[in-house]
Amino acid sequence: MTEKIKEVMNYSLEDKFQLEDLKQRKLYINFEIDENLLNDITYHILRFNTEDKGLEISERKPILLYCVSNGGSVNDGFGLIDVILNSKTPVYTINLSYNYSMGLLIFYQVVNDLLHKMQLFFYMTDKTLCIIQVQN
Predict the structure, then answer these.
(1) Is the pLDDT of residue 26 over 90?
(2) Using CA atoms, how far apart are residues 102 and 121, in angstroms rounded to an integer?
(3) What's the pTM?
């Protein structure tokens, strides 16, 4: 029995940091936007909303979504935007460095965004190229 308990409690330092981040409601978009990211972020946003059920919006602890992305799937990105916009618990996006393409659309769809000193955004269609550099 003791061996099974030790096995269950054996986790890495990275696991410990991830658990601490989840307790603080910190989520990360730090790679390409795809189905896996959509599923992971959606799960946590819905879980936090369930935890906050019955609380006034002003009493809910905000979700912090740290973003740095080269972009990715448009379908999965718009799915994530829909989840964020329908969350009763506030979601704040924090741009860590850059957000390109779909990452930019996710970042700017959320009203509550926090900017750092140096930001770089990139969006391109077949006819338009837009590069935005922000310095606070």
Answers:
(1) yes
(2) 10
(3) 0.75
